[in-house]
Here is the input.
Amino acid sequence: MERIEAHIARRDDVIVDNKRAYDDLRFSLRQDSLRNEKVLGEISQSMARLTGNLDTRTDDMIAENRAQREALFRMLDCLDGKGDSPPST
Here is the structure.
């Protein structure tokens, strides 16, 4: 009977130790998860800022190309006599 009681006592100690280890692991995983959420949020915000800057630069380049193309077509129209002013002879 003493061996059974000793075995049960050791089993109870193991259960308590395992629960403590599980709780420690759970706390650690929760902390890691919160840190990861914070880092990923910061990365997401950085990417949004960078993408916004790229979008602005891209829009500027598109507008500049459009203006250059329109200026070129106006010059070509003037050379063909289709523009506002007749070509000089």
The chain has one helix and no strands. The two ends are 123 Å apart (CA to CA). The chain has a mean pLDDT of 89. The longest helix spans residues 2-80.
